[in-house]
Design goal:
Elements (H helix, E strand, L loop, with lengths): L3 H4 L7 H10 L6 H13 L3 E4 L6 H12 L3 E5 L6 H4 L1 E3 L1 H14 L4 H8 L5 E3 L1 H7 L7 E5 L6 H13 L1 E4 L3 E4 L5 E6 L7 H5 L2 E4 L5 H11 L5 H14 L10 H13 L7 H11 L3 H7 L2 H12 L3
Parallel strand pairs: 1-8, 1-9, 2-5, 5-8
Antiparallel strand pairs: 3-4, 6-7
Length: about 300
């Protein structure tokens, strides 16, 4: 197994270099997150990112793949996810066809056929196995997204891979990565992940950004917006996060809202536009009803004079 320094680019020569590289790819990372990413890359350890939905966890994997010029392999987790969808499965229809062809040709040798049928040619590689066997000068980025949505039993499947960058296939043996992938795991904490998994990872909590950081993100991601509109939107969202809602707006919703306002040719916020576009910012009807009207107008008035 090669060391991380043998295959990773000069962009990660230091934490400052990594921060600069992320900014060139339009990701604004604070030093705490950049330090966790740097150590994950240098130590070849998976990085577990937790935080509220929409704060930029998934984007970390995307921007790393873009910055390194390497494939992003994504495993989207969900309830019922198992090894056949995450790691590998055998191509049963092709195996059956091969058996019938051999029977028709009168060339059925049970031992030879069994060995041939359970070989690489009949193996369907799912995201984890794809990441471990990816060829190329640079290791891929493996994103295991929203792990908390998967069943607890699935975490057990991951322990061998996270510890040694390998998986065991009974019919083939152990498959070990020549170049360990960069592994990013995200969780919205809808449930607690097991300690055995956490011990195999470095950890970072991504919080909602400060006003200054979120404004930088808005101006970077939606450069066509006016400076006045960007400031007003950012202040409004920062104020809105102090309201007791079912689901607060994340950075992704802030960006969606700014893009929507730009599409409406808005250069500044007004109460009527806020009411009409709240569905871009909030995704729960009760939250929209609670904010629309006088409360939205009050938040807008405070946002126009306060710098959060």
């Amino acid at each position: 197994m090669k060391l991380a320094s043998d295959v990773l680019p000069a962009d990660v020569a230091s934490i400052d270099a990594l921060i600069a590289s992320l900014e060139r790819h339009q990701y604004i990372a604070d030093r705490g997150l950049a330090t966790a990413m740097y150590l994950s890359l240098k130590l070849q350890r998976p990085l577990l990112l937790e935080g509220e939905a929409g704060v930029g966890k998934t984007e970390v994997a995307k921007v790393l793949a873009s910055a390194f010029g390497t494939p992003l392999i994504r495993l989207q987790c969900y309830e019922g996810l198992d090894i056949s969808h995450a790691v590998y499965e055998w191509n049963y229809s092709r195996q059956l066809l091969e058996i019938r062809l051999r029977e028709a040709a009168g060339k059925v040798d049970r031992e030879v056929t069994a060995r041939d049928l359970f070989s690489d040619g009949f193996l369907i590689k799912r995201p984890i196995l794809q990441a471990l066997t990816q060829a190329g000068p640079m290791p891929p980025v493996l994103l295991i997204d929203e792990l908390d949505r998967a069943d607890q039993e699935f975490e057990g499947f991951l322990l061998e891979m996270l510890a040694d960058y390998q998986v065991t296939i009974p019919e083939l043996g152990t498959v070990k990565a020549e170049h360990p992938p960069v592994v990013i795991i995200t969780s919205n904490r809808t449930r607690e992940l097991h300690d055995a998994l956490k011990r195999r990872c470095l950890y970072c909590w991504i919080d909602y950004p400060s006003y200054d950081k979120e404004l930088r993100i808005v101006m970077t991601k939606v450069p066509e917006t006016s400076a006045r509109l960007a400031a007003q939107v950012t202040r409004f969202v920062q104020e809105l996060r102090h309201v007791d809602l079912y689901k607060s707006a994340g950075v992704s919703e802030t960006l969606d809202w700014v893009a929507a306002l730009v599409a409406l040719d808005k250069v500044e916020l007004d109460a009527e536009t806020v009411d009409r576009t709240l569905g871009v910012l909030l995704k729960n009807q009760e939250d929209i009803a609670a904010v629309r009207g006088d409360r939205a107008a009050d938040i807008l008035a405070r946002a126009q004079v306060l710098r959060v």
